[in-house]
Structures are given as structure tokens and as C-alpha cells.
Design goal:
The complex is a heterodimer. Chain A is of the alpha/beta class. Chain A has helices at residues 20-29, 57-64, 74-89, 111-117, 136-147, 163-176, 193-201, 234-240, 268-281, 299-313, 324-327, 334-348; strands at 5-13, 34-35, 50-51, 100-105, 154-157, 182-189, 222-223, 225-233, 246-255, 290-292, 319-321, 350-351, 373-374, 379-386, 390-397. Chain A has a ten-stranded mixed β-sheet, with helices on both faces. A three-stranded mixed β-sheet of chain A has the order 2-3-7. In chain A, strands 12-13 form a two-stranded antiparallel sheet. By secondary structure, chain B is an alpha/beta fold. Chain B has helices spanning 49-54, 57-73, 90-102, 110-116, 120-129, 144-157, 174-182, 238-251, 274-280, 293-296, 303-316; strands at 6-13, 32-33, 80-84, 134-138, 163-170, 191-192, 209-216, 225-235, 261-264, 288-291, 335-342, 345-353. In chain B, the strands form two sheets. A ten-stranded mixed β-sheet of chain B has the order 4-3-5-7-1-8-12-11-9-10, sandwiched between helices. Chain B has a two-stranded antiparallel ribbon with strand order 2-6. The chains are: A alpha/beta, B alpha/beta. Chains A and B meet through α4, α5, β5, α6 and α7 of A and α3, α4, α5, β4 and α6 of B. Chain A: Residues 2-398 form the Ketosynthase family 3 (KS3) domain.
Chain lengths: 400, 355
């Protein structure tokens, strides 16, 4: 133990950019990617806003050089694009040079195709190729194939909106324990009628731009995205003389054990996750310079998370903001999207503004960072919470 | 730092009557079907009827299987819960998708959406136990359960946790079954379970079930076996299966001769059972072999039933006739190797040892 887990590459595609540089530019310019939904035909089109990626499936297939008989769901397409960027960014030429695994996260999986061809499958031979692509592990198998990862440790995590944070956690533990030298970790989820209607029935979708930590927040905007990070052991970093973008220092997962979809009033699970992650990193609360909050802009999450932050940090709450106002809530991918944003924050010494905030919440006095702020950052905490009471925290650091 | 990992309690709900831990396949249900459902326990014995009615079948099976496992291990709480499931509560997914389409996105209720979330089983068990610890769900096809096992083993070996509930669960869904029939993943004909491997047709007999296990650092009287090692592969060419098995044994300082029993995931699919033949006829010719998917059916976490079977054999030193695959008879069962794959992908090797 005590071994370092270095981040040596990142890739991302989201509503605010098709690569890492574009995402960063949007973040510092305060440019959000929230619009009306255009690629999914839904009756709710005028009631909701989403973070949609501009490329069509056909365009994504072309970028990946796939033949027309491929059976990639949009989840797999986005994941493959982001993962390939990460590998390139890490300067990996021979994927087999080290024991390399892949841990991906998804909640939607191939549901976009299933909901499109659900009954059509029974009659139409043309579309039946997508039946096998429904299960969540399929997108991961395809990403592995795109990266050339064979005969290796490849798995998929699905713990709702904390999934990708948990993928990062498992990857870090596999490296720390010496089981693997390199793990590609991240998550991917596309928009679907399934999730739009699901969150709609829960009445937590905003009909306008989501406003995290605002007193009058009306709910979340769904988004689609994929992001992957390359984690490597100290030995690989040394042998390859790798440039390190940041380190995964702390991580923890805890369960709220309160309700299937809602967080407890006082954020027990969130508190435990943050406290345990600090312990794993061997940090005190004051070592954290910025919290990239889960901040979905639902009434329940922001209250529960805010209270948990106060429980952990007391009167000395560090700068915090949610970037969901830019991208929407990208579900299983969110933890990886925000991991990339956290590492970019460390690299550029910048705290992103929490967009759309107008009114202070009345339950507490903490206020998110509203304007872009430059200051030296050493350690960034990223929170991801999901259904099933699933609460995860990952801490990223500039130095080992 | 390297602590041992023991199986201290088990709970199984399957297409056989397996929920009574003091029995061991006393009666073999020789199903004749393309799809086989579980033999249900009396859920009211374990869950209040009102709560049981609200639960999806996958949740219900898992909650009961985990209660049985915990009880046997003499625990009321665990440090962590790790679940594997290929499809989650697929009936609720079907219900929600068909409601979206049939009613044109109107009159929807959240229950089936909530239960369709893959980690709903893990979340529900945590709620039942009030377990606030680590809670992960792996959804990687036929390696979902093994992923959970590897995670649990990692934590126990590193001393991060001391007792972990690990399980595999999948339920049958009507529409999903219909679709898998169309693409020949399910056999075109009705097959008698005991004749599964003689069917010589494409596809498998589909099944469902929940198999949960309490893993711990501490050996105790209820202990079934020690989990020595688990390894997964996303791909493995047929020609490499034998070598991978031998290499896996070698990395655990074992030889082919050290293995007393091989537990194989044959499902009678004429297109893919040849992967098992690599071990059956090339490596373990002189080793006793068993199979189990004729008992439980094929599903993404069917290998958790294989893990249950191996645990039972190691503890009781009894091997039921209905699972025998060859005529070799071991005098004692000390070290057991499990191998599974589905449609040539997501292969796993697992090693268990008698305690």
C-alpha cells in the first residue's frame, strides 16, 4: 500500500465540448451546453432542457471508422470516443506493454436502441443486431475492443449517478494493490426516453436551466457524456518518464441506507463518503481547496449535500461549485466528467463558477463560488451521489 | 497484510430447491423447458407480506438469499455489500419501456423506473440491513458476479473490510426472453434438463436466480471453503483456454494434479460448449468434472450458482449424481477449479479450497 495512482491521460465528450480543451474553454467562459432536446422525439420536449452532444450517431460512427453493420448504442459510441482520446493523451502506443484493465460505468447502456426497436425487434431482422447490445456490459466490451484491450480485466459498474466515481475508485485500488499496472477508468451514458421519462415521473426535472444550490432550484437537466482517465502505477510513470496530470489520493463509497431514490435530510451517506475519503488520503478537511459538488439542482440533493459538507468542513467550507449547470446531469458518466474537470482545475489553478445561482438557500449560509476564481489549488474533492443511497467521494491532488 | 478469505454463509434461490441450507439437491427437478424459473421459498417467512408485494422478483430473491446467508454466518450486519447482476430487475425495465411506448409517455409511475436501476438490489439490501458501508454493483455480463468477488477479495485481503455480502442475481423477463429466442440465444426446442448436453442445438435454456455469500477474514464452524483466487478475461480465444487455466493454477502454485474437481459452465449451446471441451478433454481428463446449468439455467450470474455448488461440495464432501459430467471419481474434494464463459466472451477462473 501507500503506492501512488497517477492520472496520465484524459478524454471527454460532453454538451460543452468534444474534447478536453473544448470542455475547459467552456468552463472558464461560463458557457453552458443546455438546450431543448433535438435528437430524441419526446412529448416532453417543451417541458425539459438537456445537455445534448451535437454529433449524430452516424457522425460518431464515422469518427470511429465503424462499418454500417455495427451494433453500437450511443452509449458505446460516446464511450469509445472519450476512451480513445484518453489513451492518446496518455501517449500510450502499445496497450499490451503493461497489465492494462478497463473499468467503465453506465446506467443507460444500450437502452437507447432497446426503446427505439422494442417491438420492431420481433419482426425486423435488420434491427435485431442491437438486442445483444442492450446489457450494460456491452458498451464496455466494445470500448475494450476499440482500445485493443484483450484477455484482460474488464468490468462495468452501475450504481446510478455515482457509477463513474466508483469506477475510478476500483481502478485506483487495483493499482494500489498491484493487481494491474494501468487501468482505464470512466463512464458513459447517452440521453434516452427511458431516463427522461423516469426522472420526469420522479418530478425532479427542471423546465429551465438548472440552478445548483439556489433557493428556487427547480430540478435537474439530464445530460449525455462520456469521460475516461488513464490511471498508472508509479512504476509505469517512472519507466515511461510520463507526465502526470494529477493523482487519485482519496476515495470512499458509503451508503445512505435511507431511501431508494432520496437522500437523507442530513446527508449521512455523503458525510461518511467525504470523511472516509479524507482518511484514505490522510488529509484533514482544511487540505481541500475546492469541492466539485454533486449539485444536481434538485431540492433534495443540494440540501442534503450542503448539510453534509457543513458536517465535514464545519465553519471552514472550502470554495465549492457544481458544474451540472454546464453539462446537465450525465448520470453514470458524471463522476468521470467531474474528475476531468477536477484535474483541469488543479492544472490551471482555477475554481469554476456555479452558474445560474441567484438566491441564497435559507437552510444554511454556505454559498457556492459564483465567479471564476484563480488561486493555487493542491487538492480537489469531487462528490457523486446516486439512487440506492450510493454516495461516493474522490480526492484528486497535484502532488503525490 | 495478505489475509485469507472464507465463505462463511450461503443463500441460494434457484430453479432447484436450494433455499434450505441443511439440504443439498435432495430432489433434482428435471425441468423440461426452454426457460426455467426459480423454486420460490415462502417469502412471507422472511419478509413482511406488504413489503414483499412491492418488491421486484430480483429484489425479493436477493433479500431472502442474503438473509439466509447472513443467518448462517451468524451475522446481523456486514461491512459492505457487493452485487453482480447482468440485467438488474429486467421485468421493471420492460414494464417501463413498454409503458413509455404503449401509452405515449403518459400515465407513468416511478416504481418500475426506480426498480430498473441496476443497483436497486444492493440499495434495497442496504436499506433492509441499515448497512451504511461500501455498496457496489457490477453489471458486466457473465463476469458480473466474478467482478463482485474480486472486489470483495481485494478488500478483505487488504484488511479494508472484514465481512462482505457478495451475490449474483438475475431475473427472467418475458419480452427479453422472447427477443433472445428470436436471435437463437435460447434453444429452439424444449429440452429435458438431464439431456441438456445431448441437445446438439444452438442456444441455452435460460434461467434465473439469486446466490449470496458472506465472505470474511475469519474462519468459523459454518465456513464452507476458502476463496483462493479469481481471474477474469474479457476475451480469450478457444485455443488459449487450456493454457490460461494452467497458467492460473501455476500463479497459485498449483498443478493440474492438485485439482480434485472442475466445475464447468456448459450450457448445451453447440456453438460455444467447445470452450469447455478444451478443459474437459485436453487438461482435466483424469479429474472429476461437474456441470450445473441444467439445474439453474443460463443467466448472466449463473456462475454464482456454480460457486454455490462448489461451496456445498467442499463443505459436505458430497457430490450429487445429477451434476456429474464424467466417470472420474475423486476420493476427497480439497481444491476446486471453476471455469465459466458466455458465448465465447467474459471468461472466469475461480479457485476454492477446503478448510
Amino acid at each position: 500500500m501507500g503506492k501512488g495512482v497517477a492520472i496520465t491521460g484524459m478524454g471527454i465528450i460532453s454538451a460543452i465540448g468534444n474534447n478536453v480543451a473544448e470542455n475547459y474553454q467552456s468552463l472558464i467562459e461560463g458557457k453552458k451546453g443546455i438546450t431543448r432536446v433535438s435528437k430524441i422525439k419526446t412529448n416532453h420536449v417543451n417541458d425539459i432542457m438537456v445537455g445534448e452532444i451535437a454529433f449524430t450517431n452516424q457522425e460518431l460512427e464515422q469518427q470511429l471508422g465503424l462499418s454500417s453493420n455495427n451494433n453500437y448504442s450511443r452509449t458505446a459510441l460516446l464511450g469509445a470516443i472519450a476512451a480513445k482520446q484518453a489513451i492518446k493523451n496518455a501517449g500510450i502506443i502499445d496497450i499490451h506493454a503493461y497489465r492494462t484493465g478497463l473499468v467503465s460505468a453506465t446506467s443507460v447502456g444500450g437502452m437507447d436502441m432497446t426503446e427505439r426497436y422494442y417491438y420492431d425487434y420481433l419482426e425486423n431482422k435488420e434491427t435485431q443486431k442491437y438486442i445483444e447490445g442492450h446489457h450494460a456490459g456491452d458498451s464496455t466490451q466494445k470500448i475494450a475492443e476499440q482500445l485493443g484491450i484483450e484477455q484482460s480485466f474488464v468490468t462495468t459498474i452501475s450504481t446510478a449517478c455515482s457509477s463513474a466515481a466508483n469506477a475510478i475508485m476500483l481502478g485506483a485500488r487495483l493499482i494500489k494493490s498491484g493487481q494491474l499496472d494501468r487501468v482505464i477508468v470512466g463512464g458513459t451514458d447517452c440521453l434516452s426516453k427511458f431516463t427522461i421519462n423516469g426522472f420526469k415521473t420522479l418530478m425532479i426535472l427542471s423546465d429551465t436551466y438548472n440552478a445548483p444550490f439556489d433557493e428556487n432550484r427547480k430540478g435537474l437537466n439530464l445530460g449525455e457524456a462520456a469521460a475516461f482517465l488513464v490511471l498508472e502505477s508509479d512504476a509505469v510513470v517512472k519507466a515511461e518518464n510520463k507526465e502526470v496530470l494529477g493523482y487519485v489520493k482519496g476515495y470512499a463509497n458509503a451508503n445512505d441506507a435511507f431511501h431508494q431514490t432520496a437522500s437523507s435530510d442530513h446527508g449521512d451517506g455523503a458525510t461518511f463518503a467525504m470523511e472516509k475519503a479524507l482518511k484514505v488520503a490522510n488529509y484533514a478537511p482544511q487540505d481541500i481547496d475546492y469541492i466539485n459538488a454533486h449539485g444536481t439542482a434538485t431540492g433534495n440533493n443540494d440540501l442534503s449535500e450542503g448539510r453534509a459538507i457543513i458536517r465535514v468542513f464545519g465553519n471552514d467550507v472550502p470554495d465549492f461549485s457544481s458544474t451540472k449547470a454546464y453539462t446537465g446531469h450525465t448520470l453514470a458518466a458524471a463522476g468521470a466528467i467531474e474528475a476531468v474537470y477536477s484535474v483541469l482545475a488543479l492544472q490551471h489553478n482555477v475554481v469554476y463558477p456555479n452558474l445560474n445561482f441567484k438566491t441564497q438557500m435559507k437552510e444554511f449560509s454556505i454559498k457556492p463560488q459564483l465567479n471564476i476564481k484563480e488561486k493555487p489549488l493542491k487538492n480537489v474533492m469531487s462528490n457523486s451521489f446516486g439512487f440506492g443511497g450510493n454516495c461516493s467521494t474522490v480526492i484528486f491532488s497535484k502532488e503525490q | 497484510m495478505n489475509r485469507n478469505v472464507y465463505i462463511n454463509g450461503i443463500g441460494s434461490i434457484s430453479a432447484q430447491k436450494t433455499f434450505e441450507n441443511n439440504e443439498f439437491l435432495n430432489e433434482f427437478v428435471d425441468h423440461e423447458a426452454q426457460v426455467i424459473s426459480v423454486v420460490n421459498p415462502n417469502y412471507k417467512d422472511y419478509i413482511p407480506p406488504a413489503a414483499a408485494r412491492r418488491m421486484a422478483s430480483g429484489i425479493k430473491m436477493s433479500v431472502v438469499a442474503s438473509k439466509i446467508a447472513l443467518q448462517e454466518a451468524g451475522l446481523e450486519q456486514v461491512d459492505a455489500i457487493i452485487t453482480g447482476t447482468g440485467m438488474g430487475c429486467v421485468r421493471d425495465s420492460e414494464k417501463f419501456v413498454s409503458a413509455i411506448i404503449d401509452d405515449d409517455e403518459q400515465y407513468l409511475t416511478p416504481t418500475s423506473f426506480i426498480q430498473s436501476t441496476h443497483n436497486t438490489v444492493g440499495g434495497q439490501i442496504a436499506l433492509e440491513l441499515q448497512c451504511k458501508g461500501y455498496n457496489f454493483t457490477y453489471v458486466h455480463a457473465s463476469n458480473s458476479f466474478e467482478s463482485a468477488l474480486i472486489d470483495a477479495k481485494l478488500q478483505l485481503e487488504l484488511g479494508e473490510e472484514h465481512t462482505i455480502l457478495v451475490g449474483g442475481v438475475d431475473e427472467l423477463g418475458e419480452h427479453t426472453t422472447a427477443l433472445h429466442k428470436i436471435i437463437n440465444h435460447i434453444k429452439p426446442e424444449i429440452v429435458k434438463a438431464s439431456q441438456l448436453l445431448q441437445s446438439k442445438t444452438e442456444g441455452a435454456v435460460f434461467g434465473e436466480g439469486a446466490n449470496f455469500f458472506v465472505l470474511s477474514n475469519e474462519k468459523q464452524p459454518s465456513t464452507y471453503a476458502e476463496v483462493l483466487s479469481v481471474k477474469i478475461y474479457n476475451t480469450l480465444p478457444k485455443a488459449e483456454v487450456a493454457q490460461a487455466a494452467i497458467q492460473f493454477l501455476k500463479s497459485n502454485n498449483l498443478e493440474v494434479e492438485d485439482i480434485d474437481l472442475v466445475v464447468l459452465g456448459n450450457n448445451g449451446d453447440v456453438k460455444f460448449d467447445s470452450f469447455y471441451d478444451e478443459l474437459i478433454s485436453k487438461v482435466f481428463n483424469n479429474t472429476q468434472q461437474v456441470y450445473y446449468k441444467h439445474l439453474c439455467g443460463e443467466f448472466n450470474t449463473a456462475s454464482s450458482f456454480g460457486f454455490w455448488l462448489a461451496s456445498k461440495i467442499l463443505k459436505t464432501q458430497i457430490l450429487p449424481d445429477c451434476v456429474k459430467l464424467n466417470h472420474v471419481n475423486s476420493s476427497a474434494f480439497k481444491t476446486v477449479l471453476l471455469y465459466n464463459q458466455y458465448r465465447g466472451e467474459n471468461h472466469s477462473f475461480t479457485l476454492l479450497k477446503q478448510c
